[in-house]
Design goal:
Helix content: 25-40%
Protein name: AMP-ligase
Distance between the termini: 57 Å
Number of helices: 12
Shape: globular
CATH superfamily of the largest domain: ANL, N-terminal domain
Number of strands: 27
Strand order of the largest sheet: 3-2-12-11-13-14-15-16-17-22-21
Pfam family, one: AMP-binding
InterPro entries: AMP-bd_C_sf, AMP-dep_synth/lig_dom, ANL_N_sf, ATP-dep_AMP-bd_enzyme
Oligomer: single chain
GO molecular function: ligase activity
Keywords: Ligase
CATH class of the largest domain: Alpha Beta
Low-confidence stretches: 1-8
Strand content: 25-35%
Length: about 450
């Protein structure tokens, strides 16, 4: 099948606006219970941008979502790219910084230890001196404004650059779907980090380009989500994950009325989707995408097994996956997902995906990368990280590890891993063995790994 490349980015204007609205009074964010206007936001962005050093890129480590927005735009206005490691673990940050010589790190907190060249944002709560410079800023359409990192099947985190034109294009698709459910104006509470591409699209780009206001926090517990939603005006949109959704449903906590909910990062069981819709009286939109592609499809999982493609997106099945074409992509991107198409190619059903990839609560990793980090620990001679069977209702499986490390104990290895990986992906159990059951080609049969783990569990 011939692939027709979309012309969106080639025909994009030379420069594109930093904000999708030139209304200085419109609300960009709610922070500490108060609304932050576009005029205040831009003045703070420009003040921070004036203090940043000359560089090509900066690691954006801000946890407060409003601080992330300010830092993201300040970095972009300086012509630099926001580096978004797949984890905030010091080793992951160090690896990304090593790949970008001369870069620095930026955050709102005092970190100890801090990455090299770390800069702390000034307080963003006080009054801003002066108004934003006029006219309101624009960014070159082709400028690389972000590089998202995700662990692929090779075990090496892959860099995924995003231009400002590509972000404008991907945001248009998300905004169209959400406006159909929530109306032309809405506000967002997100439980996912802004560094994750899903969090970037739903809680950074929508406020910047879609005229949407976002809550500055990252609520985790159900009670925190309820408080955050109550601080925003209706209509409200909750951007979350299956893990958080299940906690909300089971908590029994009443939420302020929401217009719609959005879920991603892991498969959404239909039972959970239906329970959430019934419990909170709002439709639940599940979106489909990746760090490589951004979101390009969605479905209402409670009533539909098939996904609907965004305008301008198309899929091209391959023997080992699928090529994705979308307006935000310069060229088709290959994903490991296997799909079957229907409705003239405008809808699809997932038939499977690469088993190596892990997605838990908005965080991503791969078994190969986790194994690589295990093997990098001094004293570990051999090792492997793998998933156990019998996943929970969300399809999340426990992660286990076997290691050959004479002279070390399990606690020492786990302590070393805590510095290298996100705690969500720490293998438990981790067992020390004399040798791994490699076959004649050096591979590790899954059955042999489970047998060896079972032997040690019985001891």
């Amino acid at each position: 099948m011939a692939i027709v490349y979309d012309t969106y980015q080639r025909e994009a204007p030379l420069r594109l606006p930093l904000l999708g609205s030139d209304d200085p009074a419109r609300v960009v964010a709610w922070r500490h219970g108060a609304a932050v206007s576009a005029a205040t936001f831009l003045a703070q962005v420009q003040a921070v941008a004036a203090t940043l050093p000359t560089a090509t890129a900066a690691v954006n480590l801000c946890e407060d979502r409003y601080a992330f927005l300010v830092a993201f735009c300040a970095i972009a206005l300086r012509g630099q790219a926001n580096l978004l490691p797949s984890s905030r673990a010091p080793q992951a940050v160090d690896e990304v910084m090593a790949a970008h010589p001369g870069c620095y790190a930026l955050g709102e907190q005092a970190l100890d230890p801090a990455p090299r060249g770390y800069r702390q944002l000034p307080p963003l709560d006080g009054a801003v001196a002066g108004e934003p410079a006029a006219p309101w800023p624009t960014i070159p359409a082709a400028q690389m404004v972000a590089i998202g990192y995700t662990s692929g099947s090779t075990g090496t985190p892959g860099a995924n650059p995003k231009s400002w034109a590509s972000f404008h294009a991907s945001n248009a698709g998300n905004l169209t779907r959400l406006r159909a459910l929530a109306g032309p104006r809405f506000s967002i509470v997100a439980t996912v980090p802004p560094q994750h591409m899903y969090g970037m699209e739903m809680s950074v780009l929508l406020p910047l380009l879609g005229g949407v206001g976002v809550h500055a926090g990252k609520p985790f517990f159900p009670a925190d989500v309820a408080v955050a939603l109550a601080e925003l005006p209706a209509p409200r949109v909750l951007v979350t994950t299956p893990v958080h959704l299940r906690a909300l449903v089971e908590s029994g906590i009443a939420l302020p009325p929401v217009a719609t909910m959005v879920s991603a990062t892991a498969p959404l069981p239909v039972e959970l989707a239906r329970a959430a819709e019934q419990r909170f009286g709002a439709p639940l939109l599940e979106v489909f995408g990746s760090t490589e592609t951004c979101v390009f499809a969605s479905r209402r999982a409670a009533v539909d097994e098939d996904w609907s493609l965004y305008d301008g997106a198309s899929l091209h099945p391959q023997p080992d996956g699928t090529l994705v074409q979308a307006r935000q992509l310069d060229a088709p991107v290959a994903l490991a997902d296997i799909v079957s198409l229907s409705d003239g190619g405008r809808r699809f059903r997932l038939c499977g995906r690469h088993a190596d990839l892990l997605e838990i609560a908005g965080k991503r990793a791969s078994l190969a990368d986790l194994t690589r980090r295990l093997l990098a620990i001094p004293g570990v001679r051999d090792g492997v990280v793998f998933q156990l069977g019998g996943g929970d209702a969300l399809g999340v499986h426990r992660i286990a590890a076997l290691a050959v490390a004479p002279g070390l104990d399990e606690h020492t290895i786990l302590d070393a891993l805590r510095r290298a990986i996100d705690p969500l992906f720490l293998p438990r159990p981790l067992k020390l063995v004399e040798a791994l059951p490699r076959n004649e080609t050096g591979k590790l049969p899954r059955a042999a790994l489970l047998d060896l783990l079972g032997q040690h569990d019985d001891e």
